[in-house]
Each structure stands twice: as structure tokens, then as C-alpha cells.
Fold:
Amino acid sequence: MINDKVRMYLLPPLFNAAVRAGASIMKVYRNRDDYDISLKEDRTPITLADRMAHRTIREYLGPTRIPILSEEGREMRYEERCNWELYWLVDPLDGTVEFIKGNNEFTVNIALMENNVCMGAVIYVPYYEKMYVAGRDSGSYVKEGVAPDAAVDYSYEEIVRGWTPLPLAGESHHDHLRVALSRSHQTPETHEHVARLRERFPDLEIVEQGSSYKFCLLAEGRVDYYVRTTHTYEWDTAAGELILAEAGGSTRALPEERELRYNEEDLHNPWFHCRSKFCPF
Structure:
């Protein structure tokens, strides 16, 4: 079991890897002609920024000697990883579609997994210079003003200094339900789900948002509910699920209402929905 000393030792590389990856992403983001877009086997796009962020994280986390399961290393065979006790679960650029569209809604997701349970997590939003951090049974926090920096080297003390516990004070009550939806990945099932909600909450507000930033808005309490009825992968949810859970919220598979499972042979997630701490149902 990861103890507090080990957690303190691993938080700085977790945090710094995400910030350095964010710097790699923003370097490409500012130069649209350099995106170098191609398609992966599942027909989803990949850019130079994805590849650079993956390389940055792999090189920075390498000295921890903890293996990495990443979106950009998805071809790893199940037999190679099924008995891992400790590993990093990484999405170096979550929200590639939003990155290509230029709407700033993309993140770096890194989760520290122990026996397929997320024990520590960060989601970095480089454009907004916001870092969300959680440790199992240790709370969930946001640290602002974290600028992308390819040479950053935060210490543990610098990371925890001035961060804000989640959910945010002042977000405990909304006069109407706020429902987050993926900006680029909605289906007829998504709309049917929202229609059923609207029968109970006629004045609900839809908040369209890209990437795992939706988990962060839920953790802050800015939105109440999120439903996803298109395919996602384990690296899309692991970090966000812990950040939300440590802020008092929940993530459950649809329709079973079970917790999400990790390091499965098939790395696809089921459909799922999330509730903030203040969700009224």
C-alpha cells in the first residue's frame, strides 16, 4: 500500500510531468501550421502535440521506474500489463479534437494506479494555467497560476502552498440544474437522457465542454451532472474520477451503476454518468 512518504515523493514528478507536457502542447498550439494531424487506428486524430506530450511525460517519469500505460502506447499487450501492481495511467493530450478546433479545452491527465485503483491524480489545463490534484483519502484541490514550463521543478511544499480545496465555497447551490455534455461527442442516447432529466428539471442548463475538464467543473461544483454515451478509454477517466470523488462526487457506469474498472483487457469504458457533491438527485 502506498504510504504518505511515498505519496509525497511521487506527487512532484506527477505534477511536474503534467506541467512540462503542457508546455510541449502549448508550443505546438501557438503554431497551427505545425499540428501534423494524422489518424489512429480507431480513426481518432493525433497531432504533433500528442506525440510531444507523450515523449515529455515518458522521459520525465522514467526515473520513477513505474511503468506507463498511455493513450499513445495503447498497443501494449494485455499479457504484458495485467499483473502490474503500480503504474501511471496517462492521456498526454485529452481533447485532441478541441485542440485542433482551437477552443482551449484540452488537458493533460495522469493517474497513479495501485492494484488498478487510482491513488493519486492530476489534470492540468495548460491554457487556463490550472492544475487539479487529488490523493485517495487526502482530498481534492485546484492550484491556479501554474504556467506551462518545460523546465519546471515544483517541490512538494511549493505544490501544496496556496492550493484551494474542492468543491469551491460558493458553489453549493444553483437555482437550476447544470448539466455538462461533451462538446464534440454527443449521440441520440445523450439527448434522450437529457430529455428525461428535463422532465424533472425543466430549467436545466446545458454546459458543453471538451476533455476531462468536465470532471474538474464537477469537482469545483460549477456543474452538477455529466453524462457520456460515446466511447472513452480508461486514461480519459481515471484521474478525473478520483478528483471528483475526493471532492464528494461520484462516477458510475451506465446502466449497471457500478464503479469503473481499470487495466481491463479491453481499455474502453462503458457509458457513464457523474454527479457533483451538490447534485440534487
Observations:
- The chain has eight helices and 14 strands.
- Helices lie at 4-29, 48-61, 78-81, 96-101, 156-160, 188-200, 213-220, 234-246.
- The mean pLDDT is 92.
